[in-house]
Structures are given as C-alpha cells and as structure tokens.
Specification:
InterPro entries: CHP02450_Tryp (IPR012663). By secondary structure, the protein is of the alpha+beta class. It has one helix and five strands; from the N terminus they run βββββα.
C-alpha cells in the first residue's frame, strides 16, 4: 500500500497572511518540496510575482498566522477578533 502524501492539494492553494509578509498578504503555492519528513511550500505574492519564499507547509496550519483562501481586510479583522476571543476564553 502506498504511503499517504502529506498536503496533497498544496500546489495551487491560496493563502492570506494575517500580518503583511514581504509587504503583501495574499499568496499562492506554486511549488512543493519534500525533504525527508518535511514538506515545504514555495509561496508567491499574488500582486508581485517577484516576491517568493519557501515555508514549512505545517506553518500554514497556524490559524494565527495564515488563513486558507484570499480574505478581505474586513474578514481578516473578524478572524483576529475571533482568535482573540478564543484565546481569552482559553485563559479563563
């Protein structure tokens, strides 16, 4: 039986950084690289194809830093409020 691939739909996926990253918020995965147990995604800014970087694909699961899809500024603000409320309730 073949091993299940980690992050099978990574290439082509779109992401929003909750904080500006390299000056931008919207990125698309254009390439993936497997190195041992690690999977890396090559991110490209949607508005500037010259802005590229590699990131550990696991980091994209961190909802405090990345959201799947392209979110508007209003949606980002709502996400930040929701995350803030979740953190507050976990402390109490």
């Amino acid at each position: 039986m073949a091993k299940k691939q980690k992050f099978p739909h990574l290439v082509g996926s779109k992401w929003t950084a909750l904080q500006k990253t390299w000056g931008w918020r919207h990125f698309q995965v254009v390439n993936r690289k497997n190195q041992g147990e690690w999977v890396f995604a090559e991110m490209v800014a949607s508005c500037d194809r010259n802005v590229r970087f590699w990131i550990n694909a696991k980091a994209l699961k961190d909802r405090t830093m990345w959201q799947a899809g392209w979110q508007t500024l209003q949606e980002i603000q709502n996400i930040e409020i929701d995350l803030s409320d979740e953190m507050r309730s976990e402390i109490l």
